[in-house]
What does this fold into?
Amino acid sequence: MDRFTERLMGLMPAPEPSPGDLSLNEIFRHDAYLKADPQRQAEIRRASGQHRYNEEELKPFWQTYFSNYKSPINQNGRVQNNFVWHLKGKEVLDFGCFTGGRGVHWAKKYGVAKLYGSDINAVYMQAASEFATANEVENDYRILNSDGMLPFPDECVDTVVTFDVLEHVDDVARSMKEMLRVLKPGGFIFAVFPQFHQPFESHLGFVTYTPALQWIVPAPVLSRTFLSVLEKRQDSECTSRGRRQSGKNSLVLMARPRGNL
It folds into this structure.
């Protein structure tokens, strides 16, 4: 089965990545970063944040996924009719923020009062904090706890945003509970994540573009073959994301106001 799966992957193989590909988190595990001097490491961290900032300019998250959103919040007798109300003057958490460029773009464009972020790697948090500070955005970035819990107190943010993250966590229910925990009463979660059964969302893009493999090959076989192909590469530390544009789910959740049943 593994050999058959590898042949299927080879029908549309993903290209070999470049060690300097700033779209990848793998750059921070590559010798280009690990063996660089401190000044060069700082340059790479800054460039990664800037890359995500530039990506946000090219494909704005809010306009792409929530352009038709109508807020149910009634403020001063008026219904707020777009997402900006949840950002301007608000404390916002970017859950799975990577190096922070996307959030900094939101802060500068929409007037976020304070930007929070959490991810799994201390280098990402260092890069995000440096990039936000350099852009004069008030920030608080903290590495996700080893148990998957967010390192922030209860009811500390107005809005939580998560983009292409929930498909990577090992316990979605726990992550959702944690996002709700840090929300102030009446706060909102804006979540965007891929549809696993959409043909191009197998998350095998480091290796193959062959669609719908997750429909026909058991997950353990896919994982095993995926890792086997990576190990055969000359440079397996730096792998290509190779993700194609495809359909995603968007979700808005509101934290229950205190005192409501």
Q: What stands out?
A: The mean pLDDT is 85.
